[in-house]
Amino acid sequence: MNNLSERQLKTIDNQVTGWLAELGQQVRQGLGANRSVQTKEGDFRNLVTDLDKSNQAWLLDHLRNLDSQAHFVAEEGDLKRPETMVGHVWFVDPIDGTLNFVHEKTDFAIMVALYVDGQPTLAWIAKVMSEEIYHGGPDLGVFCNEQKLPAVVDRSLDQAIVILSGRRLLSGEKPYRLLAEKALAFRVIGSAGISFVRLLQQQATGYLSKLSPWDLAAGRVLSESLGYQVKRLDGEPVNMLLSNTVLIATNKMHLETIKVIKD
Asked: 157-262, what's its fold?
């Protein structure tokens, strides 16, 4: 499966889209159930639930049956992370925005992405509560369910609604403060997946945050496919096996932001 034809890409896209529709339905049906909620790394805001774990196990089981030679990077548990991006690497975030899921019952997502020899290839972001699945890649285009999305409009920073990490904004980190001051407006969402959906729908123009591989992988594929730049603040490419402070923005906004930060 290393050299995937357009037909193979469409087959995989349809398969995983169907799985996420099924999994999203299961999540919605069980929304009122009592959940086991724990904290991770001693951080009372960093939550994990039994649903995070069961969703991940369900997805990994299905993906392994689809692509038996692949490697996996997933958020929960002690799954061994690959050392390189050679071959097929799948990224799984079983509930992105767990705090939103637990306390608000909305603005959370399920995310899956496939990279082939390090190249962003296919991705899926399921916006669970609205039954929307954003999916596709550079060779297929990007879709919300069955509707194809247009390329991004290249807006500048002063026209931009920017999504920022609330924690880093509150701590006064320079890039976040400067973007909040220079942009048309800023938002704090609490979910990478939902933040990427705002970008894909062009309801926002940029997104700055420190993201783990599973937070970034799907959004990177879909955002780049629509014309966004996805880079570290120093302009270097992201490392998909490590956490990165990443700016996702239009070409104009990306150039202006780097200049603002350097000045």
From this structure: D-Maltodextrin-Binding Protein; domain 2 (3.40.190)
Under the phi-then-psi rule, with left for phi > 0, alpha for psi from -120 to 50, and beta for the rest, what region is 251?
A: alpha
Residue spans per domain, the chain: 6-148, 157-262
Annotated binding site for Mg(2+): 75, 93, 95-96, 215
Residue with tokens 């959370």: 108
Exposed, middle or buried: residue 77 (CB in 10 Å: 0-12, 13-18, 19+)? exposed
Annotated binding site: 75, 93, 95-96, 215
What is the CATH code for 6-148? 3.30.540.10
Express each pLDDT in 200-224 by its tens digit: 999 999 999 999 999 999 999 999 9
| Span 87-117, pLDDT tens digits | 999 999 999 988 888 888 899 999 999 999 9
Burial class for 106, CB neighbours closer than 10 Å (0-12, 13-18, 19+): middle
